[in-house]
């Protein structure tokens, strides 16, 4: 550790040429001396000088006027659940320029900048008042103090939840249309949620979570999807959702949450959502109509597609393969039957029935024009 006597000559030179507050003077040497209090060091360095500094050359006495900003931080955060914070700041360029000039002129390398010291001091005063802690890597709340415009901005760390949903009413879409004013980005018209209606699976779950956790937008990651007219039963379809800027983060949810025709199951907070698409299988019941009369012997041909690759082409010609591991059928009329399959996730059901860029498909195997009237998801299992 550098002895304080070694820095006195350069400190004296600075004091003689520039009027600095205790905080700014001490900051220029505290790291070198491994001391924690810039103000006390600055006061000690000035002991032999009778200098009356009306205004600090660097910060213009900003450090003496931090209390209102700390009070503003307390005020804007009082509705939030949090244990840790970090503070950022927007400082007038003239302050930064004067700080750089002093450090450069006196060759004071490796010292904290005035901006760093201001954010440290704000954090220190705020945590002392609120008994919270500083976390530079993963804070619950991030404050940004704009000293030029006297604004305290607050951003809350997102939370991620995973759960499953079941759907008991036909005609309910999975995804919600975005707000027509902001196209999903969030605006005053939609209360910054990105959606203004709540008439879908996404909308109903979002509305529930906003009521519970607060927050602005909710971004969903779906494990597969279904037709608007399909039901989702059994254990439900898995989903992940990221809530931006939540107010609450320590809420426990019931294992079963009943909404209008939608039930959320086993919803809980997790640390992170999957980084790549999850593999899953779906058990699906399809009601199929054939153009011609169908007989049971012809339906036996459907067993040919079990455990062989079913090739799917998308609209861009990209090729993928899906395996059907289980298949059952039940004739229900002269030209209609019910088909039960367990297939790898991502099989386009209606196109599979119609043999529309899906090979082999039901129409192709039966050599008949087939149409899927409706289909329901009986179970979805993550691999």
For the biggest sheet, the summary is: 6 strands, antiparallel
Number of helical segments with 4 or more residues: 10
Gyration radius, to the nearest Å?
32 Å
Poorly predicted residue ranges = none
The percentage of residues in β strands lies in 25-35%
Q: Mean pLDDT across all residues, rounded?
A: 95
SS-based class: alpha+beta
Distance from N terminus to C terminus (CA atoms, Å) equals: 58 Å
The H-and-E topology, N to C, reads as HHHHEHHEEEEHEEEEEHEEEHEHE
Q: Can you describe this structure in just a few lines?
A:
With 383 residues, the chain is an alpha+beta fold.
Please describe what this structure looks like.
With 383 residues, this protein is of the alpha+beta class. Helix content is 27%, strand content 30%. The chain has helices spanning 4-17, 22-33, 38-45, 67-76, 93-105, 114-130, 201-213, 296-299, 349-354, 362-366, and strands spanning 84-90, 133-134, 141-146, 151-156, 159-167, 218-222, 232-243, 256-258, 262-270, 280-290, 309-313, 319-333, 336-344, 358-359, 370-382. A 6-stranded antiparallel β-sheet has the order 14-11-12-13-10-15. The longest helix has 17 residues, at 114-130. It is elongated and about 110 Å long. The model has no long low-confidence stretch (mean pLDDT 95).
